[in-house]
Amino acid sequence: MVRLGYASSSEEHAPRDLVEHLVQAEDAGFSFALISDHFHPWISAQGHSPFVWSVLGGAAIATKKLQLGTGVTCPIMRIHPTILAQAAATVAAMMEGRFFFGVGTGENLNEHIQGERWVPHDIRVEMFEEAIAVIRELWKGEVTNHWGDYFTAEDARLYTLPKQLPPVMVAASGEKSAELAGRIGDGLISTSPDAKIVDAFCKAGGSNKPRYGQMTVCWAKTQAKAIDTAYKIWPNSGLQGDLNTELRTVKHFEQVTAMVKKEELAEKVTCGPDPEPYIKMLQKYIDAGFDHLYIHQVGPDQAGFFDFYERELRDHLPTAKR
Description:
Blueprint: E1 3-8, H1 15-28, E2 32-35, H2 52-62, E3 67-70, H3 81-95, E4 99-103, H4 108-111, H5 121-138, E5 144-147, E6 152-156, E7 168-171, H6 175-184, E8 187-190, H7 195-206, E9 211-218, H8 223-233, H9 243-246, H10 250-257, H11 262-268, E10 270-271, H12 275-288, E11 292-297, H13 302-313
Helix pairs in contact: 1-2, 1-13, 2-3, 3-5, 6-7, 8-11
């Protein structure tokens, strides 16, 4: 069964607005949502980046049925895994059965801010595996001591735990990271309809685990308005390779995205008022093997998008072919 969800972009909206959007997403019929965890926006035009754990506390009270996860949190540098274990456990206790913990190896943009070195990917993967192990150990509710290669926990115990521990969904953008997600995660998160990523995840132990795919769109009343909005606010969709991971500052992203052409971005972000391109893109994710599809609406007009979703998309979900 394929489920549709909503991507809450903390880089674009103030904290109270994020909570209100999640309520609206629930009312519109979305069954789940993911909220981004950033210290910075990608570019200044996006305008925001509130502390996600405060927003999650508000959303836990304001929503009633919506399943909600981080999309995604990096547990290796900016915040120590012991603190994230407590944060995730607290939100899960507030949402009983509705919270999942989405995690990944992060981006330089957000994780270097305390002056720590942004280490090569292979080392970040080692740190990531150790961090997840520490978090899962703390979730047992016992006194935890850990002296590892990268992290230390001494006499640490979590006293507030949910009745149901949150599943750990692991982000992957390539086959190697998808194999890691299949091995240590409870589910997969990815941002492109790449069947190779899903296949690698399944072969590594993820065949019976959920697979989340994010689709970036910009609904507007006209095609031209949608493309203009996406180009102004989310040009980082036009970046390729490792740039999203390796660029260090908002200024660097603005310099690089200035070279992205509007017509190139329009090919990567589904834009406009016509539902057909949205349905075709959803089908691509389904055909690649994703069973949870969540949609990121770029720009301030979230209300217009929710109305479009209810009228044109919610009851017209394509079917799986795999």
